[in-house]
Amino acid sequence: MSRKICLLLLLLLFLSFFPGNVWAEQGLTNKTMIIFENQKVDNVFLYGKDGIISGEVTDEVVVINGNLTLTNTARIKDRIFLLGGELTQEPGAQVGKGIFHISLANENLNSLLLGVGAFIFIELMKLFLALFILLASLMSAFLFKTRVNQTKVILQKSFIKTGLLGLLATLGLGLILVALTVTIIGIPIAVLLGIMLIFLLPIGLGALSLIVGELLLTGVARGNKSFYQVLTGSLFIAALLNFPLLGVFWGIVIFVLALGSLAVSLLPGRET
């Protein structure tokens, strides 16, 4: 029983993200299946269909996104699993081992499923962002070592100016992306800018990781090695993202500083 319930709950969680009318548009019919009186079947499984049972079912009845009606002559030897529909049971209908019924019309259930889905999505995004910071910082420290070191020096010399430039760059880039996405022609350009940002931003992240790692490893053996500094700094930056509220603010600060230091390092004629 526990395995079937777990499987049905997982299926329900997946199906709950799609409205009921979408299933009908996928080619599923809304015909009603009828088990007539004196008719005997082993089991019933309906998806996107309604069912009327007047006969005998020796095993389980499973109905997903459909309504189920049990007339007074219905005999269900095992259990009924009804997900996303309504159950009508006339007096005299018999169910041997109970009814497991979840209606998606329940607002509390919808809120629960939405909350679970949002929580899973946020946690996956945090994991992806942490891995991106770690891998991007390490990659940039080795592939663009000179540029990362130059960016680090720039950030240390003019921290406030770099932050202000990063804030302006973030706002400007956001406005440009919004303006591009409102037109079909501008969407490919917006995608191209996003790809360029993904490839260039690791330079700023690598510089920030170097600075943070250098501070954390002061006085530690091998603390002057760039690999350990980048690794420690990126792990520390990624770890702070998991704090509620503070993590969001920290993520914004890191993005602004990384973009600002990248912008300053790419300015022509910049001397380090």
From TrEMBL:
Key word rRNA processing present: no
Entry keyword Signal: yes
Transmembrane segments: 112-144, 164-187, 193-217, 226-243, 249-267
Leader sequence residues: 1-24
Domain of life: Bacteria
Alphabetized UniProt keyword annotations: Membrane, Signal, Transmembrane, Transmembrane helix
Protein name: Polymer-forming cytoskeletal protein
Species the sequence originates in: Thermanaerosceptrum fracticalcis
